[in-house]
Every structure is written in C-alpha cells, then in structure tokens.
Amino acid sequence: MAEASTAVVIGGTSGIGRAIAERFAEEGYQVVVAGRDASRGKEAAEACESAGAPRAVFVQTDVGDPASVEALAQDVSNAFGTPHVVVNCAGILQSGKHVLDQDLTEDEQIWRINYRGTLLGCQLFGRLMSAAGWPDAARSSMSARSPPSRRCRFRPTRPESMRSWRSPRSWLPNSARMESV
Question: Which of 54, 59, 113, 138 could cross-link to 64 by cystine, CB 3.0-4.6 Å?
C-alpha cells in the first residue's frame, strides 16, 4: 500500500485549525499538528489518530519565532518528506482595545504572528513543495466541511498575508502557483 499523504496544520491545536486537522485525518492523511500549547497539541494529535490518521504528531511551534518555523519545516521534511498539504491557521486576535488606545507592542505582536508567521510558513513549505516539482504548490483557502483534494496544495489562510501573493507565478519556480481566495 502506498504511504498516506501528509497534511501540516500550523495552528492546529484549537478552533478552525484543529477541525481542519481532524478532517484531514478522517480522509486518511498523516497529520502534523503545529502550535504553541503542548497539552492541546498532544490532544489534537490523539484526536487525529482517533479520527483515522495513520500517523499524527504534534510539533511545538511558535510562528512568531522564525527559528521555530524553520525547525518545523525541517522536522516535517525529515520525518515525512515533502508534505502534500500545508494549512496556516495560527493567529491571535486583538485585545479589543480601541485603536487609539492600542499600544505598539500589541500591534507588533499581531503583525509578527498573523502576517510574518504566515509568510514564513508559506516561504519555507512553498520552497519544499516547489523543489518537489509539484505544479500546484499553493492555494489559500479550504473548508473543513468539504473533502480535501489529493492534489498538492499549500494554503496560507490569513487575508493580510495574501496581499503579498497577488502575482503568484513570479514567486515560485517550476510553474508552481499560489492562489488566494
């Protein structure tokens, strides 16, 4: 039997990310759950195995730290090879303060995690997928309610990061394309 496809869900420890990870598990994917909270991450990986993933692991990752995202990409590459799907779901919300009262530290944290963390994940995993010669290396939207395709897909999900990918063919070699929805 052929080895199962691999899905990496960055921010897969809770909420939408966890639902996406579990959906890929139901479809028979190996699942890598990445996130900051080790307890929730281990629970999510166990839930993925219960949902049908032949293999599910948690990799502690802080998308606000470039070295951590680089380590995730390396760990995934070493343990699973090039992933077939990568979903960027990690993010934080604003504190709810009025914009006139929000300090720059909070603003910087939001940009570091929601924008640059997603961008770095796109770059690192996009390079792996492009190097593997997959022509459809990047797509930006998916629904946990509809079955995932078996085609190679890379999905940055934060709208603010998608503005960077307006001209996808110029970003990736080997005719790989990035799309945003």
Answer: 113
Provide the pLDDT for residue 35: 97
Which residues does the chain have with pLDDT short of 70? 1-2, 135-181
Phi, psi at 65, each rounded to 5°: -115, 105
Residue 176 belongs to a domain: no
Q: Number of helices and strands (H, E) in the chain?
A: 6, 5
Number of domains in the chain: 1
Domain that holds residue 25: 6-170
Please give the backbone phi and psi of residue 8, each rounded to the nearest 5 degrees, phi first.
-110, 125
For residues 10 and 45, give the distance between their C-alpha atoms in angstroms, rounded to a whole number.
12
Q: Is the pTM of this model over 0.85?
A: no
Residue 178 lies in a domain: no
CATH of the domain at 113: 3.40.50.720
Strand intervals (E) in 48-145: 56-60, 85-88
Distances in whole angstroms, Cα of residue 42 to Cα of each of 9, 11, 25, 30, 58: 13, 13, 15, 15, 6
